[in-house]
Design brief:
The protein is α+β, with helices and mostly antiparallel strands. The protein is built from six helices and 18 strands. The chain folds into two domains: 10-110, Rieske Iron-sulfur Protein; 122-316, Naphthalene 1,2-dioxygenase Alpha Subunit, Chain A, domain 1 (Alpha-Beta Complex), CATH 3.90.380.10.
């Protein structure tokens, strides 16, 4: 396939998604890779295909004493540079292509061999400097092209429909929109009705979300959307990540951060907040996967310019 946005930085995983000495498969722009980390936290990534008979290495196992991955078909071993290991030594030349990784604050980025056109967003560093990492949630492959997924993330209006019942949304308005190059900010006011007792019992987080939310959304094109919000128990930074797996499949997950939360409150509400965020992903993906082929809109909603700003960045790349 033709690469989507070559030269963009892609956040493909968080360390907590990998485990230790466990093969982890990812797909980026039509190419499969296998990633693993050892007990020391060292990361390795190579093409997922064994050069012998093309078996998927991610179905194999890690030989932890040698930091190699074994093919599930014939147990051939390869190191993190793609060199064959045999007779107790490694070949001098790699025969599998290595995927270059950049690790920053436990986030794993790659340019997948392309010349970088954008730096890793400073937005991620700001979040880590101020917030505590809570967890990853909502990891999913969406059957939808990357542009459609971007435009949903930049389209605040869809909250009035897609997430209306979950959060009891009565109105969602943008009070400001600013952009500079590949970075944008939106100030958003969301008004909610009261959740039912049954909804609160099902997810206690619904009982503490304010009836009026004044959110700040920050966008780092093309991969990152962050919702900064305040709750009675502290501040949150809900960080939505996207990257293109194939032409018609997009990977997403949420990195959830919080600050100024009492440890007891964090223990009580961590699962609830992660569950609510995962539900957002499910609702978005259901909507994207049900869309008909795109045509020129015959209706315009207020403040849609942010969505078309993102589309222009994509098409002008």
């Amino acid at each position: 396939m033709k690469p989507i946005l070559p030269g963009a930085p892609w956040l493909i995983a968080h360390r907590s998604m990998l485990g230790v000495n466990k093969p982890h498969k990812i797909t980026l722009n039509g190419q499969d890779y296998v990633i693993w980390q050892n007990q020391k936290g060292e990361l390795f990534a190579i093409d997922n295909i064994c050069p012998h008979m093309q078996a998927p290495l991610s179905d194999g196992w890690i030989c932890k004493d040698r930091d190699t991955i074994a093919c599930p078909f014939h147990a051939l071993e390869f190191d993190g540079q793609g060199r064959l290991y045999r007779e107790n030594k490694k070949d001098t030349q790699p025969i599998i292509k290595q995927l270059e990784l950049i690790v920053s604050n436990d986030c794993i980025w790659t340019y997948a061999g392309f010349e970088p056109r954008l730096p890793i967003p400073e937005l991620h560093q700001r979040i880590v400097d101020e917030y505590e990492f809570i967890g990853v949630t909502g990891e999913k492959s969406i059957q939808g092209d990357f542009l459609s997924n971007i435009m949903v993330n930049y389209d605040y209006n869809h909250q009035n429909g897609t997430h209306k019942e979950l959060f009891r949304i009565t109105s969602c308005n943008v009070t400001s929109f600013e952009h500079q190059g590949y970075y944008a900010t939106v100030k958003q006011e969301v008004k909610r009705a009261k959740n039912t007792l049954g909804e609160i019992i099902k997810n206690p987080a619904m009982g503490i979300i304010p009836k009026t939310l004044n959110n700040m959304l920050e966008y780092a094109f093309p991969s990152t959307t962050v919702v900064f919000a305040e709750s009675p128990i502290g501040s949150i930074a809900q960080t939505h990540i996207l990257y293109p797996e194939t032409e018609n499949r997009t990977k997403t997950f949420i990195l959830f951060y919080a600050k100024a939360i009492n440890p007891l409150m964090k223990l009580l509400f961590k699962k609830s907040f992660l569950s609510a965020a995962a539900t957002i992903i499910e609702q978005d993906s259901t909507m994207i996967e049900s869309l008909y082929p795109r045509e020129k809109p015959k209706i315009r909603l207020p403040n849609e310019e942010i969505m078309f700003y993102a589309e222009k960045l994509y098409r002008d790349w």
